[in-house]
Design a protein that fits this description.
There is one protein chain. By secondary structure, this protein is low in regular secondary structure. It contains no helices and no strands. It is rod-shaped and about 100 Å long.
């Protein structure tokens, strides 16, 4: 009784871990996030010091990207870091192993469609499994998409004649239908 209580929470400033925040007063793990669950920026992991801020406050964040590491009660499905060792990625919305941050390491170029392409774009649908992505409305054969999306032995068809560039198309820069002397 009689000690200064700047925020009016009933705890003396000398004992209050947050003397300017009336909804928090204790911080058992000393990470800067309060233990009062209903208070401002409540520590979601009050017994484990942490720096996460993106999905929950005050939980361990191995790569310091703001997203907390997963644990027994918080998984990637809840919002935990899908890439806990990569500070440039934290979400993989389509679950294909490529992160949704396009500027990050191995950024998924088709974040809403799960895919396995690796040669022209990362993480896009690749029907025949040859590494080249299937063409779509934004990425065409002219951009480098698979010219033969149903044939794993062929992928390039820059002139659109159905023959794979350099493999069975003797004139890859010109559309043609010859097949007796040259394809």
């Amino acid at each position: 009784l009689g000690c200064a209580d700047s925020d009016g929470d009933g705890y003396a400033d000398v004992d209050d871990a947050f003397p300017s925040e009336s909804t928090q007063w204790a911080d058992a793990d000393a990470d800067g996030y309060g233990d009062e669950a209903s208070g401002f920026q409540a520590d979601a992991c009050p017994s484990a010091s942490g720096t996460s801020t993106r999905d929950r406050f005050g939980c361990p964040d191995s790569d310091n990207d703001g997203s907390s590491d997963n644990d027994s009660s918080w998984t990637v499905g809840n919002g935990a870091d899908a890439f806990p060792s990569d500070a440039t990625q934290w979400v993989d919305g389509d679950g294909d192993g490529y992160g949704d941050n396009p500027a990050g390491t191995n950024g998924d170029q088709c974040p809403t469609f799960s895919g396995t392409s690796t040669q022209d774009r990362l993480g896009c649908p690749d029907t025949d499994g040859d590494g080249y992505s299937d063409p779509d409305s934004l990425w065409t054969i002219d951009d480098g998409a698979d010219g033969c999306p149903n044939d794993p032995a062929r992928w390039g068809d820059s002139d659109g004649d159905g023959d794979d560039d350099g493999v069975d198309d003797d004139c890859p820069a010109f559309f043609g239908t010859s097949m007796h002397d040259r394809k």
